[in-house]
Amino acid sequence: MRILGIETSCDETAAAIVDSDRNILSNIVYSQISEHKAYGGVVPEIASRAHIDKIEEVIEESLQKANTKLDDIDGIAVTAGPGLIGGLIVGLMTAKGIAAAKNKPLICVNHLEGHSLTCRLTDNVAFPFLLLLVSGGHCQFILAKDVGDYKLLGETLDDAAGEAFDKTAKLLGLDYPGGPAIEKAALKGNENAFKFTMPLLGTPNCNFSFSGLKTAVLREVEKLGEQNLNQNIIEDVSASFQKTVANIICDRLKNAVKAARILSPDLKNFVISGGVAANKYINQKLRNEVVHYNLQFYAPPLNLCTDNAAMIAWAGLERFRKGYISSLDFIPKARWSLEGI
Ligand code: KG4
Ligand code: ZN
User: Is the pLDDT at 293 greater than 90, yes or no?
Assistant: First the structure.
């Protein structure tokens, strides 16, 4: 079985083809970063226009690379939310057009389920698993019980982890997207140079709060004075910030494991997914930490952590195998929780 996946929920125009033997036959990602860089973040209208410009080309390239014709595809999977509504409309209308013209099943995929199931594509991870979904828009602990069956255990009360990276990078004068820029700067920095507070530390749940951390960095930068914000300081602040994010996540993990094991006592697997999962420092800290809870650690390869269409094609394939097919009048959803699918 071969599924075409389409992803346009944010600033990547992407198409991919995967098969039921877990092969990624093609995975084309057109990143719009250069178009948004000057604004320090994603501009929704620019994103929508770029998706319109690129979508056909990207889909054609994915078919060519996979040496596949549309006639040989068994279903069209597409991100139908959550995300920027203009981009979602572009992807969903394109998918509906192909599905209608070629008489193929349409499978609408929740973007978060795409991130959640990536480790089943790459490592065949068995359910149930505890998932830390850390991206630009989300920071959640989820118990994944089955395809389409998720229990939210805790989430951020304000900023997402990726958003905290992006905002902190911006105030340090680093490039967009902030995550990779901070990770790079942190490599040369002293992670103990600054001590930032850890909001919600020790509270008996697995929620997060990152907006206070961003403000703490801002206060520190103000205290230092903009003229003193030299390369060394930027590297030290980046390393200290990154270490604090990792420590917050590790602190919250113990309550997440407790909550997950009440619902699934046989829990053995831990998965990190989403753009922030690409961060090697956070990845390594968590890899060391989950050992204390007798959990096996899984993270997608770097190119499948950030947004891509292979994860959408795979989630579509898993849903299709369960018989979940969408109607052609499916409406895109800017907000769409994983528990509500
Ligand atoms: O999953 P994703 O590509 O898009 C969303 O669904 O949000 O995640 C993008 C987010 C951005 O906030 C970006 O700064 C962050 O992931 N990110 C990182 C790294 N690479 C991407 N954060 C920390 N370290 C990284 N290496
Ligand atoms: Zn994402």
Answer: yes
SS3 25: strand
Q: Measure 31 CA to ligand 1 centroid, in angstroms.
A: 13
Is 90 exceeded by the pLDDT of residue 340? no
CA–centroid distance, 134 to ligand 1, in Å, is 8
- What burial letters (b/e) apply to 112-147, b meaning 16+ CB within 10 Å? bbbbbbbbbbbbebeebbbbbbbbbbbbbbbbbeeb
Q: Is 338 in the pocket of ligand 1 (CB under 6 A)?
A: no
State the Cα–Cα distance between residues 340 and 18, nearest whole angstrom: 26
| Ligand 1 site-directed mutation target among 13, 33, 109, 135, most atoms within 8 Å of CB | 135
Question: Minimal CA–CA distance to 211: which of 145, 163, 247?
Answer: 163
Q: How many angstroms is it from 13 CA to the middle of ligand 2?
A: 12
> How far does residue 185's CA lie from ligand 2's centre (Å)?
23
Tell me the C-alpha to C-alpha distance, in Å, between residue 280 and each of 166, 238, 267, 300: 17, 14, 25, 12
Q: What pTM does this model have?
A: 0.96
Residues 132 and 141: beta-carbon distance below 8 Å: yes
Residue 40's pLDDT band (cuts 50, 70, 90): confident
Q: What distance in Å separates the CA atoms of residue 282 and residue 285, rounded to the nearest whole number? A: 5
- Determine if the peptide bond prior to 300 is cis (ω within 30°): no
State whether the beta carbon of 113 lies less than 6 angstroms from ligand 1: no
